[in-house]
Each structure stands twice: as structure tokens, then as C-alpha cells.
Design goal:
With 911 residues, this protein is of the alpha+beta class. The chain folds into five domains: 49-167; 242-395, Beta-Lactamase (2-Layer Sandwich); 414-523, PAS domain (Beta-Lactamase); 611-762, 2-Layer Sandwich (Heat Shock Protein 90), CATH 3.30.565; 788-909, Rossmann fold (3-Layer(aba) Sandwich), CATH 3.40.50. Helix content is 58%, strand content 17%. The protein is built from 26 helices and 24 strands. It has a six-stranded antiparallel sheet, sandwiched between helices. The protein has a six-stranded antiparallel sheet with strand order 8-7-12-11-10-9. A five-stranded mixed sheet has the order 14-16-17-19-18, with helices on one face. Strand 11 (494-505) and strand 12 (508-517) form a beta hairpin.
Length: 911
């Protein structure tokens, strides 16, 4: 089979031959074209002019002379003669002009110069003869003889004969030149064909010789590749049966030498940056003699070597001829001495990393062609796979031994486990194994349980817990410390702490379940948790009430105080509408304060100590007051309020403040938990002595589970993370207030469909008694104006400004101000005020600590001190009084009572 190289050279040979033939043809064509041009020149420049001269000569000697002769003899009419002569003259003129345009030699030019005057003379004579014909001068025509005609044209005829003779002569010469050129072209073509043939023969012989040489080389390569195929086959058989690495390496080197006819072969393994020779073979392995067993791969010599290149790159590296590769200059002498000319190195991998190098040496240059390299790469790949397989087998044997050991340990642990343990098939749910403690837990023997499901045995987890266990196990793969309830064959339900995970047991996916009996601990913890929950709830309630009281009373102090100041100072400067607005602000503020006080009374409500003032109330008036107070909240949330439709005036028996509080709470919930552009509708009706107020909204609604916990204090029903603010105490307080007013509250709700609240109150009857809700009588007229120095210790600038403007109504009172405890102590010591007003919530020192320091200092121990705070809890009041306060006033401050109290204390101090 021809090699690709032979085919390529044969193709190039054909291309060159075709090129030479083309070149020869082109040169021959050019020569023939020259001959043809020469022949064409003879024809154009000699043959055609010769014919033209002969036509001219014939026109003069024959046509014109004959026409005159025939006319003279009467054989030709005079008109016809004139036409023949005119035609001859035109022919002479045309052909002479064509002749003059041909190629003319020098002799022709000379003869033409002599001929043209004779042609003009002949033309003159012919014109004269034509005139005779035209005049029909018979006598003159008769006098013309043939001799006269010939004599008149004789000179011109002679010159034309000379030109014709010259043309024949020149044509003969050019014809001889053209024949010579033709003969020369024939010889040139023959020479070119000979040269082309010789060149083609030479190149063909060269290609054939090269083909024969390549054929021998190809045959050698095939034999070499066949030998290494056999080596690859023996290697594959070797790696199947041999598991000992040292023997494997030695046998592979021997196979490469004996079967593959390599000159030498060696395998080295990489260890800590060194190549350690493990095996070698070959008659020429003297090449390796004297080399160290451990070869440092970090040296320059190793870095430049073929072996080092293969190790670094992870690809095979080749040196086809030691004597031509400067990179292997160090090895030239050793290679020549041992008859080695070429080598290739192949990286051996183990676990994906270069583990060693296989080096193959040959005694022939260019020994390693591409197919052989690919074959050796495959051999080394098979060796790498064998090494990985050895490692996998070792790991498998180790894993089997570990598994057997672990299985034995598992059996021991399983049956000696201090907790009840079961193994249950995840597919059939049958018990595959159970330890003795687990069997006792369920009142059965291990033999009775194995092979059955827990449902068949009617023991184990309750259905809800069992379902939750399997769902979590399938989702997460394991369950840790799941508290469950389970039953045994007899006795009460038990509590267990269950842990389970998926395991493989006898080739099947199973659940290993371990449960610890925590029934006794569960009961103990439950009792303790209930107690802690009660304590925590009480503490949370107390903390919440205290915080809410303080946080609401502080801003209410400013709202109510400044509103009162505006109302008392308004006079005629305010319009009635503005005064009415201030009245509404003040009314809402005092109502809010009343609500705060009600929150503080939650504990008293639960104890049954809250007092209500029930009286006859017009229901719609209270409803509209509640709507007015919640209108701003509805606008903020984008909710539309619909008051009850007009109808008969309904009256109820209730406390006005508490009823308004109930309505505001219900309306606020309907607004806050509604949707944007939602609706809240109210309606009132009376049935069987009871008046019913119905509030319906289009809001979020509540589930059955939420309705079950609706009246639990401080429970926001899972909406703690929402943006809606709240404390969770409103509905609990609302139901208690409704019950105290001998009414009830009913709530119907569905998720996403809104909520309907029904408030039922007893209607007013004529037999009922009324408790007038009149205001307390105003205090007696002021005594003499009070005077003195008042020190107010307060960090809130608004509260400070309010007290300042209130005390401005007492002209005899001077106000001193301190914004923190330290400054207040200093002023109290230096100024000795007649009255000291002390806020208990200061930024640097607590108010109680300020009280203690004032009473402990002899200079300030006798000062009159009033604690002025937003805290209204009983324990807060008691703590202030115990710390040394003479009185405790809660915010918000009412103008008249506050001024009366200050005046009273100042007058008492002055006395």
C-alpha cells in the first residue's frame, strides 16, 4: 500500500510534468505564432499589394484602352465606354490608396515616387479622351489608334511592371525567411519535448526509488507496531492476573524489550521530588548503569531531560535522535556507547496524579512515530488503570473488613443499648430486629415483634406521630430528639424521645429508631413549665402595663397640657370652630388617658375589683364618637367606614367610657387587619330587651385555630411579625368589659372573607336606675397667690416647656430647670428651692437615686419633693414614696389640679 508521502510526491510529479508540458506547448505556440505572423505578413504586405498592382495595371492597359478602342470602332456605345472608363478610374484610385497603406520597402518608395507623376499624366490624357467621347467627336476618336493608346500609357505600365517585379522579389525573400523560422520552431518543439521527457523520467525514477525506500521503512514500522500490539496484548493479560506492583513493573519492562524489541525499558516512581527506579530490562540497559537509583527531578539536568519533561507536563515526551537534540547533549556519549539513538517517556498516573514514568529506548533514530506513541500511551493508560484497580481492590477489602468489624460492633451495641431500639424496613414497615429493652417497652418478646408491623401489633407511635416521623425521615434522612407519644400492649400512654435515621441493613433501606422513655420527666417538666408560664405571663403583663402606661402618659402630658393652655389663653382670638377642635383634642386625650388607666386595671378586672358606672346612654351618640376617633386611622389604612343607617334612637345601660373603649377597640381591629380600599360597616338593632351592635369588615379573617385562642391576653394569633402594631390585650379586655356591663361579644370569621363582631348590651328600661355621670365640683376659689422658687429636674424638653408655661400663670413663682440628675443635685444644694419637681426617668442618674441622695444630704434633706412621672403602677408609686418623695403626681398633668397642688405645697412650705 502506498504511503501518504508517496501519493503526495506522485501528485507533485504529475503537476510538474503537466507544468513542463504546458511550458513546452506555450513556447512552441509562441514559435508557431511567429511563423504564422511571418506568413501573414508576406500575404498582407506582398501578395495583396501584388494583386492590387496587377488590378491597376490591367485597368490602365485593358479596361480603359479597350473601352476607347471599342468606342472608336463603334462596337461600344459612347455612354457605355464612358461608364467603363469611370469604373476603371475608380478602381485605380481605390486600389492605389490601399496599396500605399501596406508595408513598403525603400525600393518601393522610390518607384512609387516615379510612378505617381506618370499616373497623373495618364489621368490627364484619359480625361481628354473622355471629353472627346462626351463631345461625340468622331473625327478625333477616329484618329486614335492602338499605337497611340499604347504609347500614352507605356511609361506608366513600365513603372507598374517594375513595382510588380519588386513585390515578387521581396515576397520570395520573406517566404524563404518564414520557412526558415518554421523549421527552427519544429526543432525547438522537438528539443522541448525531449527535455520534458527526460525530466519526467528522472523525476519518476526518483519518486519510485523513494517509494521503494519508504515501503521498506513502512514495513519496518508495521512490524514494529505489530510487535508492540503484541506487547499491549501481553500487558493487558498481565494486569488482569498480576496484583503485585513490583512484579507488574518488571514484567512490563520485559515485555517492551522482548516483544516490542525496545533496546531498553525502565520504570521509575516519583517520591518526594525524586524519581526512584523500580524496574528495568534490555540488553542495552547498560545505559542506566552508573545512574543513581534516586534521581533528583529538581536539577537542571533532570528538568531538561525527556523523562523530566514527561513528569512535569503529564504528556509523553520524545527524543527521536540523541545526536541531533541539543537538549540531550549530556546523554550523547552514554547513548553512543550503548547503541541507543531515540527514547520516549510516558507519565504513569495513579489516582489521577502523575505517579511515575515509563522510559522506552530504541537503537534506531525516528523510532517513535505517531501510531507507536499512541499505542504506548494506551499501554501506559492500561497500566494506570491497573494501579487504580489495585487501589480500589485494596480499599474494597479494607472497607469489607471495616464493615464486618462495624457490623459486629453494631450488633453488640444494638442488643446492649440502654434505650429501646428497633430496625424497621422502610418498604414493608415490618420490624426486622429489636433489642430486649425495646421488646419489654411494648410488652412483647422479640420473636413476637420481628416480621410484623407496629400497626399489626397495635403498639408503638400514635398515628399522628408515626406519620410525622416518616415524613421528616424521608425529607431529611434523619430525625433527632422528636418527642412522641406511644402505646404498649397494656398500661397508659407513654412519652418518648425518639431519634431515627436511614441505614442499609441486609441490603435493604431501613429505619434505625431509638426511643428513650421520658414519661416521668415529661410530667414533671409539664408541671414546671405551666408554673413558669403562669409566672412569666404575669411578669410580662406587669412589664407591658408599666411600659405602655409610661410610653402613653409622656406624650399625653404634652397633648393635654398644651391643649389646656391653648383653650384657657384663646379668648376671642380663636374662632368657635377652633375652640371646638381643641375640645375634641382634649376629649380624645382624656379618653386615651382613661384607656391607659383601664389597662392598668387589667389585674383588678381579673380579680373582680373594677368599678363601672352604668347609666342610660344614647347608643348612636357613643357609636358616632367612636367613629370620629377612628376616622383618622381608617383614612391612614385606606378603609371606608359606614355608620349605621338612620333609625330609631336606641338606648343602652352601660358605662360610657367603657362602651366607647369597646367600640374603638373593635373598630380599630376591623381597620388595621383589613385590606386596602376595604369596608367596615356598623348596624344597630334591638331584640328581646337586648341591643345588638354589629361590626362587619372585609379584612383578613381568622382561622378556627386562631378563633380558639382569640381571648388570650397578649396573644397576637401569629401576627407578631406583621406591620400591624398591637399588644394582644384588646379583645381579652373587651370581653371582660362586656361581661361586667352584663353584655357579651360574639365573633364569626373565615380566612380571607372578613370578620363579623356582635356586641350585645341590655337595653334601657323605665325601671332602671340612673347614676349621673356629673363632673366633680370645682375647687373653692383660690386663696392668696402662692410664691416661691420651684426646681424642675426633667430631661424631656417638651415636658419642661409645658411646666414652664403652666407655672407662668403663677406670677410669684420662679422656675429653675435642670436637664439631668447631676445638674439637679447641684442646683438643689446651691439654690435651696421651696419645691422640687423630680422626673424619675433621667438619662444619667435614676430619679430614685436622686431622691436618696437628696434625703441623705443634710443641706437638702428638708426639701419638699414631688415625684412627677409617667409611671402609674402601684409598685412605682410605692418605690418613690419609700425613697423620700413627699407626693407622687402622674402625667399627664391637668392645669388646674397641677397649679392648685403647686400653690398648696408652696404655701405649706412658706408657713
Amino acid at each position: 500500500m502506498r504511503s501518504p508521502g508517496f501519493k503526495t510526491r506522485l501528485t507533485w510529479l504529475l503537476v510538474v510534468l503537466l507544468a513542463l508540458m504546458g511550458l513546452s506547448g506555450y513556447l512552441a505556440l509562441q514559435r508557431l505564432r511567429g511563423v504564422a505572423a511571418s506568413i501573414s505578413t508576406v500575404y498582407q504586405d506582398r501578395v495583396l499589394p501584388l494583386q492590387q498592382l496587377r488590378l491597376i495595371h490591367n485597368a490602365y492597359r485593358v479596361q480603359i484602352a479597350d473601352a476607347l478602342t471599342l468606342a472608336r470602332e463603334g462596337s461600344l456605345s459612347q455612354g457605355q465606354a464612358m461608364r467603363d472608363i469611370a469604373q476603371a478610374r475608380q478602381l485605380i484610385k481605390t486600389e492605389w490608396q490601399r496599396y500605399l497603406k501596406t508595408y513598403l520597402v525603400e525600393d518601393e518608395l522610390r518607384l512609387i515616387a516615379q510612378t505617381e507623376p506618370l499616373m497623373r499624366q495618364a489621368e490627364t490624357q484619359i480625361q481628354a479622351w473622355l471629353e472627346l467621347l462626351e463631345r461625340r467627336d468622331a473625327a478625333s476618336l477616329a484618329s486614335l489608334s492602338q499605337a497611340r493608346l499604347t504609347a500614352a500609357l507605356q511609361p506608366l505600365s513600365g513603372r507598374l511592371d517594375a513595382l510588380i517585379t519588386l513585390q515578387l522579389k521581396v515576397a520570395e525573400e520573406e517566404n524563404r525567411a518564414s520557412r526558415a523560422a518554421y523549421d527552427e520552431a519544429i526543432w525547438v518543439i522537438a528539443a522541448l519535448m525531449l527535455i520534458t521527457g527526460l525530466a519526467g523520467t528522472g523525476m519518476g525514477w526518483t519518486v519510485f526509488a523513494r517509494y521503494r525506500l519508504e515501503g521498506r521503512e513502512q514495513e519496518q514500522r508495521r512490524e514494529r507496531l505489530q510487535r508492540f500490539y503484541m506487547a499491549l496484548s501481553q500487558t493487558n493479560q498481565l494486569i488482569v492476573r498480576e496484583r503485585h506492583e513490583a512484579t507488574l513493573f518488571a514484567e512490563i519492562c520485559r515485555i517492551c524489550v522482548n516483544t516490542g524489541h525496545a533496546g531498553c525499558c525502565a520504570i521509575g516512581l516519583v517520591d518526594d521530588g525524586h524519581l526512584v527506579r523500580q524496574a528495568h530490562a534490555g540488553a542495552q540497559d547498560g545505559f542506566l548503569a552508573g545512574l543513581p537509583q534516586r534521581w533528583d527531578l529538581g536539577t537542571d539536568e533532570a528538568q531538561r531531560s525527556v523523562t523530566g519533561t514527561a513528569w512535569r507536563s503529564g504528556q509523553h515526551a520524545v527524543c527521536q535522535d540523541f545526536l541531533e537534540d541539543l537538549a540531550t547533549l549530556h546523554w550523547h556519549e552514554r547513548a553512543l556507547k550503548n547503541g541507543l539513538r531515540a527514547m520516549a517517556a510516558f507519565p504513569i498516573r495513579r489516582g489521577g496524579q502523575v505517579f511515575g514514568v515509563l522510559a522506552v529506548y530504541a537503537s534506531e533514530p525516528n523510532f517513535f512515530d505517531a501510531p507507536l506513541l499512541a499505542l504506548l500511551d494506551e499501554m501506559v493508560g492500561d497500566l494506570s488503570y491497573a494501579l487504580d484497580d489495585i487501589d480500589r481492590e485494596r480499599a474494597r477489602q479494607t472497607a469489607l473488613a471495616d464493615a464486618e468489624r462495624d457490623r459486629e460492633q453494631f450488633r453488640l451495641l444494638f442488643h446492649r443499648s440502654p434505650v429501646a431500639t428497633l430496625i424497621i424496613s422502610m418498604q414493608s414497615k415490618r420490624v426486622l430486629d429489636v433489642n430486649s429493652l425495646g421488646a419489654r417497652r411494648y410488652g412483647l418478646s422479640a420473636e413476637q415483634m420481628i416480621g410484623h408491623t407496629m400497626q399489626e401489633l397495635d403498639v408503638g407511635l400514635l398515628p399522628a406521630y408515626r406519620q410525622a416521623l416518616y415524613e421528616r425521615l424521608e425529607a431529611e434522612g434523619r430525625v433527632s430528639n422528636l418527642e412522641v407519644q406511644l402505646r404498649g400492649r397494656a398500661g397508659p400512654l407513654l412519652w418518648g424521645l425518639l431519634s431515627a435515621e436511614l441505614i442499609s441493613y441486609h441490603g435493604e433501606t431501613c429505619m434505625l429508631a431509638m426511643s428513650l422513655d421520658v414519661t416521668e420527666r415529661r410530667m414533671t417538666e409539664k408541671a414546671r413549665e405551666e408554673q413558669q408560664a403562669a409566672v412569666a405571663a404575669n411578669q410580662a403583663k406587669t412589664a407591658f402595663l408599666s411600659r405602655m402606661s409610661h410610653e402613653l402618659r409622656t406624650p399625653l402630658n404634652a397633648v393635654l397640657g398644651f391643649t389646656k393652655l391653648l383653650m384657657t389663653a384663646a379668648g376671642s382670638r380663636r374662632s368657635p370652630q377652633e375652640l371646638d377642635q381643641l375640645t375634641h383634642v382634649q376629649s380624645a386625650g382624656w379618653h386615651l388617658l382613661a384607656l391607659v388607666n383601664d389597662v392598668l386595671d387589667v389585674a383588678r378586672i381579673e380579680a373582680g375589683n373594677l368599678r363601672l358606672h352604668a347609666r342610660r346612654l344614647p347608643l348612636l351618640q357613643v357609636v358616632h364618637e367612636a367613629l370620629d376617633m377612628t376616622e383618622a386611622l381608617a383614612s391612614e389604612h385606606g378603609v371606608h367606614l359606614h355608620p349605621p343607617p338612620p333609625g330609631d334612637e336606641l338606648t343602652v345601660r352601660a358605662d360610657p367610657i367603657r362602651l366607647r373603649q369597646v367600640l374603638i377597640n373593635v373598630l380599630s381591629n376591623a381597620i388595621k387587619y383589613n385590606r386596602r380600599d376595604g369596608q367596615v360597616s356598623l348596624s344597630c338593632s334591638q331584640q328581646q330587651g337586648m341591643v345588638e351592635i354589629e361590626v362587619t369588615d372585609t379584612g383578613l379573617g381568622m382561622s378556627a385555630e386562631q378563633l380558639a385562642h382569640l381571648y388570650e391576653p397578649f396573644n397576637r394569633l401569629g401576627r407578631e411579625a406583621s406591620k400591624v402594631e398591637g399588644s394582644g390585650v384588646g379583645l381579652a379586655l373587651t370581653r371582660q368589659l362586656m361581661q361586667l356591663m352584663q353584655g357579651e361579644i360574639r365573633i364569626d370569621s373565615q380566612p380571607g372573607r372578613g370578620t363579623r363582631v356582635r356586641l350585645s348590651l341590655p337595653g334601657w328600661t323605665s325601671s332602671g336606675t340612673t347614676e349621673p355621670g356629673a363632673l366633680d365640683a370645682l375647687p373653692a376659689p383660690h386663696q392668696a397667690p402662692a410664691s416661691g422658687r420651684v426646681l424642675y429636674i426633667e430631661d424631656n424638653a417638651v415636658n419642661m416647656l409645658l411646666v414652664e408655661q403652666m407655672l407662668a400663670r403663677l406670677p410669684g413663682v420662679e422656675l429653675l430647670q435642670a436637664c439631668n440628675g447631676a445638674e439637679g443635685l447641684a442646683l438643689a444644694t446651691s439654690q435651696q428651692p421651696d419645691l422640687l419637681l423630680l422626673d424619675l426617668d433621667l438619662p444619667d442618674i435614676t430619679g430614685l437615686e436622686v431622691l436618696r441622695r437628696l434625703r441623705a444630704d443634710a443641706d437638702t434633706a428638708g426639701l419638699t419633693i414631688v415625684a412627677l412621672s409617667a409611671g402609674a403602677m402601684a409598685d412605682e408609686v410605692q418605690a418613690a414614696l419609700q425613697a423620700g418623695a413627699d407626693d407622687y403626681w402622674t402625667k399627664p398633668l391637668d392645669l388646674e389640679p397641677f397649679l392648685a397642688g403647686v400653690s398648696r405645697l408652696l404655701r405649706a412650705g412658706g408657713a
